[in-house]
């Protein structure tokens, strides 16, 4: 199911994005984050999405692998945002089967979905086009002024390097858990919507437990 799922896996290349200094790419990702979390209207996210897609094309990364990994991530993110929207109180203005959603809950859920999706997509482009050591070195240089405040810059850079190194291992753990659930007869793609949602939610606990 997760064949080609390339979250956090660097793809060697000679594109403009690969040749750019890591600091410029991290600053660009920070700009995307600020734009996404500061967007006042939902149509701003269309512009941010277009910029991210253009960036992935410039980076010449494996688009199929990127779409596969983002598909799984966005599906899990959509479920999380849907559950979060259910928790927002208010007058029920939208109904999806047995679920009643308030206007504020729907708007907040959609906003969180696009904000988190944009940040994850941008981070994917960064990790696909930049070696983990280069990312850690760039962060160390960007955060160097914080050393004047006695912040542990070198230690933070080392933690980032270790985190990026372990991302492929986490990917394999997720693959193992999902394959085990499928082997037990769990059907994620067929049947009633509520049955598929319960099957997907049941993946959270073993995935989190496997990566602790």
- Mean pLDDT, as a whole number? 75
Low-confidence stretches: 1-5
The secondary-structure class comes to mainly alpha
Radius of gyration: 19 Å
Largest sheet: 2 strands, antiparallel
Q: What is the topology, as strand order, of the major beta sheet? A: 1-2
Kindly report how far apart the N and C termini lie.
23 Å
Helix content: 55-70%
Strand content: under 5%
Shape: globular
* Total helical elements: 9
Work out the number of β strands. Answer: 2
Order of helices and strands: HHHHEEHHHHH
Summarize the structure in short.
By secondary structure, this protein is mainly alpha-helical.
Topology readout:
Blueprint: H1 16-19, H2 22-38, H3 43-59, H4 63-86, E1 92-96, E2 99-102, H5 103-129, H6 132-142, H7 153-183, H8 193-201, H9 204-210
Antiparallel strand pairs: 1-2
Helix pairs in contact: 2-5, 3-5, 4-5, 6-7
């Amino acid at each position: 199911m997760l064949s080609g799922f390339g979250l956090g896996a660097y793809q060697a290349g000679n594109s403009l994005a690969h040749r750019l200094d890591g600091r410029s790419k991290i600053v660009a990702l920070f700009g995307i984050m600020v734009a996404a979390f500061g967007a006042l209207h939902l149509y701003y996210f269309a512009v941010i999405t277009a910029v991210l897609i253009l960036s992935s094309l410039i980076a010449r990364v494996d688009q199929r692998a990127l779409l596969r990994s983002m598909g799984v991530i966005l599906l899990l993110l959509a479920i999380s945002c849907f559950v979060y929207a259910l928790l927002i109180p208010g007058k029920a203005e939208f109904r999806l089967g047995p679920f009643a959603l308030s206007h504020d809950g729907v708007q907040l859920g959609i906003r969180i979905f696009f904000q988190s999706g944009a940040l994850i997509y941008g981070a994917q482009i960064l990790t696909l086009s930049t070696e983990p050591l280069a990312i850690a070195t760039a962060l160390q240089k960007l955060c160097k002024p914080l050393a004047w405040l006695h912040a542990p810059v070198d230690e933070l850079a080392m933690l980032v390097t270790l985190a990026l190194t372990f991302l492929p291992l986490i990917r394999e753990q997720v693959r193992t858990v999902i394959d085990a659930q499928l082997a037990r007869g769990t059907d994620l793609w067929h049947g009633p919507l509520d049955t598929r949602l319960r099957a997907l939610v049941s993946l959270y606990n073993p995935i989190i437990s496997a990566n602790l």
